[in-house]
Amino acid sequence: MADRSAPGPDGGHLIGALSKFKSNSLGLISDLQRRFGGIARVKLGPYLVHQVTDPELIKHVLQDNPGNYRRGRFYRGFNLFMGHGMLTTDGAEWKARRQVAQPFFQRARLESAAPIITECVDDLLDSWAEPARDGEVIDIVDDVMRLSMGVLSRTLFGVDLRDRADELLPVVRFAIKAMIITGKVEQMLPRWVPTRYQRDLKKHQAVLNGVLDDVIARQRARGTDDDNLVAALLSAEHPETGRPWDDRAIRAELKTHFMAGHETTGCALAWTLYAVAQHADVRRKLTAELDEVLAGRTPTVEDLPKLTYLRQVVDESLRVYPPIWVYPRDAVEDDEIGGYHVPAGTTVLISPHAAHHNADVWESPEAFDPERFCPANRHTTRYRYLPFGGGQRHCIGHHLALLELQLAVAMITQRYRLDLASGHQVVPTGLVSLRPKTGVQMRIERIDQE
Ligand code: HEM
């Protein structure tokens, strides 16, 4: 076993790089990657962390030795809004949850739900008719979040949670800050200390729990024959106890899918529309492809294989702006990564953002260039491109996300031209998701169809 420590900044003191992580987490991970390469050792407050960005070393953690890397201390924050569910558990508990949900994420099954997606996109397009006519500037972020909330809840839960978006959107905005542990005092105080943060936390948790309890109650009243995830969870038996799952466990699964699925896809769509608006050549090429293949009609799943450039645009957006920009694991036993010692109990950070912006691996990584995903290059992307993670814990929802992104980008580009409002700067910020810090303000113009 190697006894060498990986390179990294001097971090022996108590605070280490934590204050930088709090104020500019994206800057810190890029800086570590640039200065120290594929594996860097850093102290974040009291925690020893190895950031891994080399594709082979990422493969080691996610695919070759995954049993040694579990959800750990940084995932505890996720319990606040996801409970004890598929994303936050390990081993047999995780497996049981993944098995119940897996059938609902089969590609063919999701593809048959494409008309639900196009209906939800149509609603979004209709809601933009007025601002387009009045030449108004709008922030598109909440709108795309509503869209992904509608798609997720209709395809998986058999209800339309857009009806409750006004309650849910503030919950999610709070949650994506609260779930990431940054060592802020308010996060560290015991829950019984009556701070404003604790009051807000409880209020938002109660709203989310209440909405999802309603979803469960409605499904229970309808019975368990419906073909959706809620009905499947209500009729599932726990593999170890043989007993049905209780409502708390079912709610944790629904919270997990809700939080993991709609925020990520919404962010990805906002970033893709932003990127297309910023690159006239990309917009031109995309519009030409859509015109040629669709000639103005609504896209279907059968059209997608012909819309190759559309897929390249989505892939490149997920490279430059990966919605899950970092995720941690804790090492169970001592390990060796890239010849360096990684002690048991310490954290390994996988950052798609740092990996996707690594100049040793990507040519001109800061440039938005969909050509790098042309079909001839696709096979070379393994573990240097990981917007949906990798190994056995890869994203269960990736087919749904990609389907929704392709259909939504196509339909929006067909009907509207989006331009960034003059003077508005879009700045990525690393919360649980990669969010545009002050929104994405767009001027929307209707493209007249023949
Ligand atoms: C663009 C959209 C999405 C992105 C970028 C994304 C990204 C990711 C990533 C990177 C992971 C792995 C995290 C880790 O290993 O720690 C993950 C896991 C997960 N994602 Fe997604 N995701 C997206 C959409 C969705 C959707 C639509 C759903 C569900 C409706 C979903 C549900 C999940 C769940 C439940 C897990 C945990 C899987 C497990 O641990 O077995 N995601 N996602």
UniProtKB/TrEMBL annotation:
<dbReference type="InterPro" id="IPR036396">
    <property type="entry name" value="Cyt_P450_sf"/>
</dbReference>
<dbReference type="InterPro" id="IPR017972">
    <property type="entry name" value="Cyt_P450_CS"/>
</dbReference>
<dbReference type="Pfam" id="PF00067">
    <property type="entry name" value="p450"/>
</dbReference>
<keyword id="KW-0560">Oxidoreductase</keyword>
<dbReference type="InterPro" id="IPR050121">
    <property type="entry name" value="Cytochrome_P450_monoxygenase"/>
</dbReference>
<dbReference type="InterPro" id="IPR001128">
    <property type="entry name" value="Cyt_P450"/>
</dbReference>
<comment type="similarity">
    <text>Belongs to the cytochrome P450 family.</text>
</comment>
<dbReference type="InterPro" id="IPR002401">
    <property type="entry name" value="Cyt_P450_E_grp-I"/>
</dbReference>
<keyword id="KW-0349">Heme</keyword>
<keyword id="KW-0503">Monooxygenase</keyword>
<keyword id="KW-0479">Metal-binding</keyword>
<protein>
    <submittedName>
        <fullName>Cytochrome P450</fullName>
    </submittedName>
</protein>
<keyword id="KW-0408">Iron</keyword>
